[in-house]
Design a protein that fits this description.
The complex is a heterodimer of chains A (about 180) and B (about 450). With about 180 residues, chain A is an all-alpha fold. Chain A has 8 helices and 1 strand, in the order ααααβαααα. By secondary structure, chain B is of the alpha+beta class. Classes of the chains: A mainly alpha (about 180), B alpha+beta (about 450).
């Protein structure tokens, strides 16, 4: 926490080594989060790229009330939600929608390289309703508390706990191949 | 049913790493965004930042931090501040990379110690010390001292790696022996990378790493960085379980490396082998005389047994020749991806007609000649080893199923690697080859025996 506050202080002073450190410290976690939430490597890369670019432009505006990590995670979550909204509009307009299917295939200039386990996990997570997926990813991947997730989802804490429970049950079934297609 | 704990573990084990080149490109975009924004900031902004918040206020805002800092200060006073290390990172590794790239030539010293058990109760110990001269223009010249594990005389040798001439040369004066090997383009490039500190920094940047803070080495103030990420240099070790701990210390004034360390634990045939490599005493931007890279092999020197004069091009055909020879000499495909290494005992026990014929051919030859003849015959297997290592190195997603596939299995995937975004090249058990889509490959691999 203290290191992050110092980094943000230096970043606001315009020091590029602070920006580098922030980027190196969080890029992998954010990419992983975006990949498992959106289920598409190329879109996830675009989202995290955009988050860092916008962050780099925010020296004047940024005023952290919580941690830097929460700020960046929230930025990723908001962009993932926007992307999903855009996708559903696109799907209505284009019933084919084939290019919107989730994909873990790397693009020609791939940034993220996924392990086999991450691909399996990412595919299994796509079987969950989005709100449940978000809860389980934030809890297991980002080590956030139910209270923090409830604030992020703007729902009561019991709803978050319920979503987590359902998500784990479904994930167990999917990973065991017990879901009837 | 998978337990919740298993799912938790799955999250923890699901790894992602970044491609170093693309990563640098992304960061350039981010940096450019920062620089363009900085130009447009009102002049009063930075002054306001400095006035409004100072580091002491930031760190002392939290009561917990106050307590923690008080505790650290007390401990630091007790130990005389001798071990003080800051965790704040003043150096970015990307800047270190940029700095190294400007260096035309450098000298350094390094040592490598390999320890383990060669056989139960028989410790294995191998130690080398060397000095290197590395030039972007000419290549690498190394002087090696191989220590005798029993405390006897050391063996000295010179090694030249000359990428322009695509040649590697070793000269051992004590034994009057030499090796001169022609490399193909890909290996000339890879060999150069091995010796390149840029490569180490790039690998670290593609992994999870952390700052070890500041310390002093040989009177130089340095900052250390460490990674234990299993993805570090993963393409250099094919199929052996390993743990790695890599560290680099960088001069805080020049941003050039001062020392690097690699500690690698490998499991080879139930034996734990530890390799410890330390590089130190770097001298950067040294003048270079081209004559230093000219090697002379005296006429009375003979070739080191088993060395290769010219490697064949590492192609699919070479790989098939290697697999075919494995079956001829061993009677089956090797189980793992070490097609040549560790196959020697299997060959000695083998009684296939080809193996018996070869043994007959070398009977009566002098030891050196015998080894040369055997290893020359096995060259396709050695090339297959390098072909597969090259696929791993180039991230072609290779896989090999020699454990379950036999030469009779015309419909089973023996080896495969990626050739395009959605296509794989497949060598089947009977050694015929075809290109298949990812979907077809998934079906083929699903049908493989477990």
């Amino acid at each position: 926490m203290v290191e992050d506050k110092l980094l943000v202080f230096r970043f606001k002073q315009g020091r590029h080594e602070a920006l580098r450190r922030i980027y190196d410290k969080y890029k992998v976690e954010l990419l992983k989060l975006a990949v498992v939430l959106i289920g598409d490597v190329n879109t996830a890369e675009d989202i995290v790229h955009d988050v860092f670019v916008k962050f780099a432009q925010s020296a004047e505006r940024i005023k952290l009330t919580g941690s830097l990590k929460s700020y960046l995670v929230t930025s990723v979550i908001n962009r993932v939600r926007n992307q999903r909204r855009d996708n559903s509009r696109h799907c209505v307009a284009n019933l084919e929608g084939a290019d919107l299917l989730p994909s873990f295939e790397p693009g020609p200039q791939q940034w993220a390289i996924l392990s086999e386990q991450l691909i399996v996990l990412g595919q299994a997570l796509q079987e969950l309703p989005y709100e449940q997926r978000e809860v389980v990813c934030l809890r297991e991947e980002m080590d956030m508390t139910f209270r923090q997730i409830a604030a992020l989802q703007n729902v009561p804490i019991d709803t978050v706990k319920g979503r987590f429970r359902y998500a784990i049950q479904k994930l167990r079934s999917v990973l065991d191949g017990e879901v009837e297609k | 049913m998978k337990s919740a704990e298993t799912i938790k573990r799955l999250f923890k084990n699901a790894e992602l790493r970044v491609h170093p080149d693309t990563d640098e490109q992304v960061f350039k975009d981010v940096l450019q965004a920062q620089q363009e924004t900085k130009k447009n900031l009102p002049p009063s902004f930075l002054a306001e930042v400095r006035r409004g918040e100072n580091i002491w206020r930031i760190t002392m805002k939290s009561p917990l931090t106050k307590l923690a800092i008080a505790a650290v200060l007390i401990i630091a006073c007790v130990i005389g501040l001798s071990l003080w290390r800051t965790t704040g990172s003043g150096i970015a590794l990307a800047d270190v990379l940029a700095r190294i790239e400007k260096v035309k030539a450098y000298r350094c010293q390094w040592s490598m110690k390999i320890t383990g058990e060669g056989a139960p109760g028989k410790p294995y110990n191998y130690e080398v010390r060397a000095t290197d001269l590395v030039s972007q223009e000419h290549g690498t010249k190394s002087k090696w001292e191989e220590l005798d594990p029993n405390g006897g005389e050391s063996t000295f040798e010179e090694q030249y790696f000359l990428p322009q001439e695509k040649t590697k040369i070793r000269i051992i004066p004590k034994q009057k022996k030499y090796e001169r090997t022609e490399l193909d383009d890909a290996w000339a490039e890879r060999g150069q990378k091995f010796k390149d500190p840029r490569w180490m920094v790039k690998e670290i940047l593609g992994c999870k790493y952390e700052s070890m803070g500041k310390s002093t080495i040989d009177g130089i103030e340095v900052e250390g960085f460490q990674t234990t990420d299993p993805n570090y240099c993963r393409n250099y070790w094919t199929g052996l379980p390993r743990q790695i701990d890599a560290k680099i210390w960088v001069d805080v004034k020049t941003w050039l490396p001062v020392r690097t360390e690699h500690d690698i634990m490998q499991d080879i045939k139930d034996n734990k082998i530890r390799t410890h490599i330390v590089t130190h005493d770097y001298r950067w931007d040294v003048p270079v005389d081209a004559a230093e890279f000219e090697s002379v092999i005296p006429d009375d020197y003979t070739r080191i047994a088993g060395t290769v004069v010219k490697w064949p091009a590492l192609t699919e055909e070479t790989a098939i020749q290697g697999l075919k020879l494995c079956v001829d000499l061993l009677g089956k495909y090797p189980e793992g991806t070490h097609f040549y290494s560790y196959q020697w005992p299997a060959f000695q026990k083998s009684n296939t007609p080809a193996a018996m014929r070869l043994e007959e051919e070398v009977k009566g030859l002098a030891e050196d000649e015998k080894v040369n003849r055997l290893l020359d015959t096995m060259l396709p297997m050695r090339s297959l080893d390098r072909f597969y290592a090259g696929l791993k190195f180039d991230n072609k997603d290779p896989a090999y199923y020699g454990k379950t596939v036999t030469p009779k299995d015309a419909d089973k995937v023996l080896m495969r690697w990626k050739v395009s975004d959605n296509e794989y090249r497949v060598i089947y058990g009977d050694l015929h080859v075809e290109t298949v889509t990812s979907e077809k490959l998934a079906e083929l691999e699903k049908a493989l025996p477990k």
